[in-house]
Amino acid sequence: MPDAVRLQLEDFSLDGEIAALRAASRRIGGIAAFLGCARDFSGGRAVTEIHFDAYETMALAELQTLRAQAISRFGLIDARLVHRLGAVHPGDDIVLIATAAEHRAPALDACHWLIDELKARAPIWKKEISPQGNAWVTPHP
Amino acid sequence: MIQVLFFGPVAERIGARQIEMDFRQGLRWQDIYGELRAHHQEAFALVSIVAVNGKRVDEQDDTPLADGAEVVFMSAFSGG
Questions:
Q1: Alpha carbon of A79 to those of A17, A53, A65, A74, A119: distances in Å?
Q2: Tens of pLDDT along B36-66?
Q3: Could you read off the pLDDT of A10-62 as tens digits, one per residue?
Q4: A118 and B49: CB-CB below 8 Å?
Q5: Residues of chain B found within 8 Å of residue A55, distances taken between Cβ atoms
Q6: What are the extents of the domains in chain B?
Q7: What's the CATH number for A5-136?
Q8: How would CATH label the architecture of B2-74?
Q9: How far A26 CA sits from the closest chain B CA (Å)?
Q10: Minimum Cα–Cα distance from A85: chain B residue
């Protein structure tokens, strides 16, 4: 089974990650997931590709810390975080957060918290490739 | 030697992802910041986050660097 926290060039399987969570325990009563996808527009411009760069050692360590904090803070049974690097194209998956808990509320709350914290704390940058010109993305809420 | 790393927009503006700087006793990350900023003003205009050996540091952290330390000057993150 792949690691619960990963940075990878290749695509991932939502079904595979959910199956890995379900295999962790029979106490799971709810699984929440956030799947970030690449759009073909941004700020009124067409986007043909998004390129992700990362300070990989720090980003991976930060994602592992986030997972541990979420499990403790929300009483999760398990959580998985996967982020793509390199080139992705419109329609591709970018990031997956999946959380499992005994009940829906902590699973949903933890999922929301994790994606917000990932965006603020993981040293990852994205550059949008566009016919109108390429641009590094400025963080936004 | 001190390894200085750059990523994303900062690396693009500098035109490199890594440079090496000579180690000297008492050297702090702020000293490296000042030296590099003088030569790469456009790149360092983006820098808002600094890490030493994989841990974020702030302006108050003036612990001298060890020989072989890794210092990273980063812009605001935009993953996810």
A1: 10, 24, 12, 11, 17
A2: 999 999 999 999 999 999 999 999 999 999 9
A3: 999 999 999 999 998 999 999 999 999 999 999 899 999 999 999 999 999 99
A4: no
A5: 5, 7, 51, 72, 74
A6: 2-74
A7: 3.90.1170.40
A8: Roll (3.10)
A9: 30
A10: B79
